């Protein structure tokens, strides 16, 4: 046995393994709840738009240069329509309404980026445009008598704009898809019903609209065998209005690229500067959220796309990198609030007069309430899977009696730890089991109870939550520290509810609200997120 020779073999193998792991990515591409993806490329940059329902700013926008590493950098909808008190948490709420699957596009004829989306809860479609995708995004049109439900935008070669969309129907086999043309001033022009589902196809929605090599395609999620799996594509033998006289199945039940999660569906496709095509879909992993997965697409000679599956004929857990790896800003990091990054979203529209950046994030109380789900200006961050922590350093020296400020983990139920200021002193409390009613429009039915309490002294504390995403459950625990180094567990465990169709995953929330009167404030000196396996 030639020892040198076997060392050489091992060395070759190690080099191969290192190269291989550097050139391979693992699903999901982002461990955060970012569903209903639309993806486009403008020159070398990819843009990813997602839904976020009742959170604000809305329609988060991420960017990438390799399709695998993404960074948050803007929102296409700066605010949910402020004319609706429910979007502002003004005594009422719009949980699970707002931004559903919406769409982005770049129109090179006009040098403008477009975002088009129906706000569920308004029956109106909103169109926002920007010269620079970083913003400002400005309202360009409101189409008040059409909800382009789950829309996909197409910019044709001549710059004309079309939208493919659906309408929620109770019976899947009756589901229809329409195409509308927009006028130059972005109003509804003509629309035609272009496709109706049937017993074989079943429920369709989530339209994406493409023109590829001169052929028009509509890409649709299709809940054919059970809710949450399946994708088809329609092909037109004519123009944008069809006829869409042929279709193909792209995905059925196509494996579980993230162990413990569902099968990929919905999303969009995009080509690279090299001419390769890729598909970003999402998988259900409620109550944690819906996570994006990426796979290559190939086309046959008749112009039909198919996903490149793994050896088991499933969407793979790993694929080679689409392009040379290009790092982006890390998703888990420490923030001292020199700016308010777009990785955060407020729970509903905030009262912008009640927060500021002054050596940290200063939160004045913005609502007098005893209901966490009706308190304005809760700043949220998606939990990161599979496990993550969020820690805040909280200066509580300017609170008023009756104020509550701290850290929550919530979906449609919440648990929180609160610095609670009362006449006789300040305490750290854990409020357990706050919940909304899942069957009657998402209103608070349980305001929670204090299950742990201890006096707090000084003016500063560190609060931490750790959320573990264990497939079909999210479990979170809380702790606190008086020096930022040693943390002591505090209170009970949070379990995110998952008993109804509530589209969003679990988030962390930083809150400050009054139960007596306005005037108090706290400052979040820093916020740190860590992500673990
Ligand atoms: C894309 O690249 C072309 C060619 O370099 C350039 O003229 C154009 O301005 C670029 N478009 C954008 C939106 O950056
Ligand atoms: C478009 O047509 C070109 C030229 O025939 C071909 O090379 C390319 O593969 C086609 N692309 C798609 C997505 O079908
Ligand atoms: C203040 O009084 C309330 C009601 O008696 C009590 O529950 C709370 O623990 C007290 N707080 C402090 C900090 O002692
Ligand atoms: C969370 O992740 C960290 C870092 O990977 C790991 O050490 C820890 O065991 C994980 N905790 C749980 C509960 O999975």
From TrEMBL:
GO terms for biological process: carbohydrate metabolic process. Keywords: Glycosidase, Hydrolase, Signal. GO terms for molecular function: hydrolase activity, hydrolyzing O-glycosyl compounds. The keyword Hydrolase applies. Residues 334-517 form the Beta-xylosidase C-terminal Concanavalin A-like domain. Residues 1-21 form the signal peptide. Pfam families: GH43_C2, Glyco_hydro_43. Belongs to the glycosyl hydrolase 43 family. This is Beta-xylosidase C-terminal Concanavalin A-like domain-containing protein.
């Amino acid at each position: 046995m030639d020892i040198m020779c076997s060392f050489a073999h091992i060395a070759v193998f190690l080099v191969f393994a290192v190269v291989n792991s550097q050139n391979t990515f693992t699903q999901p591409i982002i461990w955060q709840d970012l569903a209903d993806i639309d993806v486009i490329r403008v020159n070398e940059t990819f843009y990813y738009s997602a839904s976020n329902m009742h959170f604000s700013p809305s329609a988060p926008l991420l960017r990438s240069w390799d399709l695998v590493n993404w960074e948050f950098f803007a929102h296409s909808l700066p605010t949910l329509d402020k004319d609706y008190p429910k979007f502002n948490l003004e005594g009422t709420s719009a949980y699970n309404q707002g931004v559903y699957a919406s769409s982005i596009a770049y129109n090179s004829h006009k040098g403008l980026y477009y975002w088009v989306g129906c706000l569920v809860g308004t029956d109106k479609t909103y169109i926002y445009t920007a010269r620079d995708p970083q913003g400002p995004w400005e309202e360009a049109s409101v189409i008040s008598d059409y909800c382009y439900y789950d829309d996909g935008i197409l910019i044709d070669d001549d710059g004309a704009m079309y939208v493919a969309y659906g309408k929620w129907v109770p019976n899947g086999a009756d589901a229809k898809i329409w195409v509308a043309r927009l006028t130059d001033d972005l109003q509804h022009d003509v629309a035609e019903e272009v496709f109706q589902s049937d017993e074989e196809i079943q429920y369709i929605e989530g339209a994406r609209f493409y023109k590829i090599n001169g052929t028009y395609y509509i890409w649709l999620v299709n809940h054919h065998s059970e809710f949450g799996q399946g994708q088809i594509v329609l092909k037109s033998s004519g123009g944008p209005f069809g006829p869409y006289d042929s279709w193909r199945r792209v995905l059925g039940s196509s494996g579980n690229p993230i162990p413990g999660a569902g099968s990929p569906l919905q999303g969009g496709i995009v080509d690279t500067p090299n001419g390769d095509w890729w598909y970003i879909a999402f998988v259900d992993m409620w109550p944690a959220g819906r996570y994006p997965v990426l796979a290559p697409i190939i086309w046959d000679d008749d112009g039909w796309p198919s996903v490149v599956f793994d050896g088991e004929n499933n969407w793979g857990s790993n694929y080679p990198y689409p392009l040379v790896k290009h790092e982006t800003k890390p998703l888990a990091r420490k923030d001292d609030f020199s700016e308010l990054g777009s990785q955060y979203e407020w729970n509903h529209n905030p009262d912008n007069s009640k927060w500021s950046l002054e050596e940290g994030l200063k939160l004045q109380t913005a609502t007098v309430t005893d209901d966490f789900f009706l308190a304005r200006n809760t700043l949220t961050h998606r939990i990161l899977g599979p496990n993550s922590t969020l820690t805040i350093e909280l200066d509580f020296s300017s609170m008023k009696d009756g104020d509550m400020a701290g850290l929550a983990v919530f979906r449609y139920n919440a648990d929180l730890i609160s610095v609670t200021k009362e006449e006789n002193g300040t305490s750290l409390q854990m409020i357990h089991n706050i919940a909304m009613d899942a069957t009657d429009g998402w209103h608070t039915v349980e305001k929670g109870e204090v299950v742990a309490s201890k006096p707090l002294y000084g003016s500063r504390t560190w609060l931490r939550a750790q959320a573990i995403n264990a497939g079909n459950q999210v479990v979170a625990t809380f702790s606190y520290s008086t020096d930022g180094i040693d943390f002591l567990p505090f209170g009970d465990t949070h379990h995110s509810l998952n008993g109804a169709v509530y589209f969003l995953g679990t988030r962390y929330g930083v809150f400050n609200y009054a139960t007596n009167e306005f005037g108090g404030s706290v400052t979040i000196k820093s916020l740190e997120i860590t992500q673990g396996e």
